[in-house]
Task: inverse folding
C-alpha cells in the first residue's frame, strides 16, 4: 500500500494495474489472432486457386475428405462431423451425387438408412485436389526450420477443435 492511501484505495490501484496489464495482454492476443486469421484466409485462398479446375466448392471438398476417411456414413453422421445442418449436407451431397462423385447405398441392416461413399471418380477427384493442396503446404513449410514445423504442428494438434474425429 502506498503511504497515505487507505486499504480500499490500495486494492483499487492494484485492481487497476491488473486490468491495465490484462488489457495489454488481450490487445496482444487480439493482434496475434488477427494475424492468424489473415494468414489462414490467404492460405485458404491459395488452396481455392489450386482447386479452380476441380469444380468443387470448399464445402464439397470437405465432405469428400470426410467420406474418404470414413466411407459409408449416413447423411446425419456426415452432417454432424462437418458441423453443418442436415439440409445443408443434403444439398452438398445432391451436388456431389449429380457429379458422379458420391453414391448412396441402402444400409444392409436398416433399409431406411442410406450410406454415402465416394465413387471411383470421387476418390480420384479428392486425391487430385488433395495432392495439389499437399504440394502447396509442402512448399510453404519447406521454407521453415524443421524444429519450427514440429513446434507448430505440436501446438496446433493440441487445439481441441482441430482434433480429427
Result:
Amino acid at each position: 500500500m502506498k503511504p497515505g492511501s487507505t486499504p480500499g484505495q490500495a486494492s483499487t490501484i492494484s485492481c487497476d494495474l491488473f486490468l491495465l496489464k490484462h488489457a495489454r495482454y488481450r490487445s496482444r492476443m487480439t493482434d496475434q489472432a488477427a494475424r492468424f486469421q489473415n494468414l489462414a484466409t490467404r492460405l485458404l485462398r491459395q488452396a481455392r486457386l489450386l482447386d479452380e479446375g476441380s469444380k468443387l466448392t470448399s464445402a464439397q471438398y470437405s465432405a469428400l475428405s470426410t467420406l474418404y476417411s470414413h466411407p459409408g456414413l449416413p447423411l446425419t453422421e456426415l452432417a454432424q462431423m462437418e458441423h453443418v445442418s442436415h439440409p445443408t449436407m443434403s444439398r452438398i451431397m445432391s451436388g456431389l451425387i449429380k457429379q458422379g462423385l458420391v453414391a448412396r447405398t441402402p444400409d444392409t441392416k436398416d433399409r431406411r438408412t442410406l450410406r454415402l461413399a465416394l465413387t471411383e471418380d470421387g476418390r480420384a477427384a479428392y486425391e487430385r485436389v488433395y495432392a495439389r493442396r499437399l504440394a502447396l503446404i509442402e512448399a510453404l513449410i519447406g521454407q521453415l526450420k524443421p524444429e519450427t514445423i514440429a513446434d507448430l504442428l505440436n501446438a496446433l494438434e493440441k487445439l481441441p477443435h482441430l482434433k480429427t474425429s
In short: The domain at 56-136 is CATH 1.10.10.10 (Arc Repressor Mutant, subunit A). The chain is about 70% helix and 5% strand.
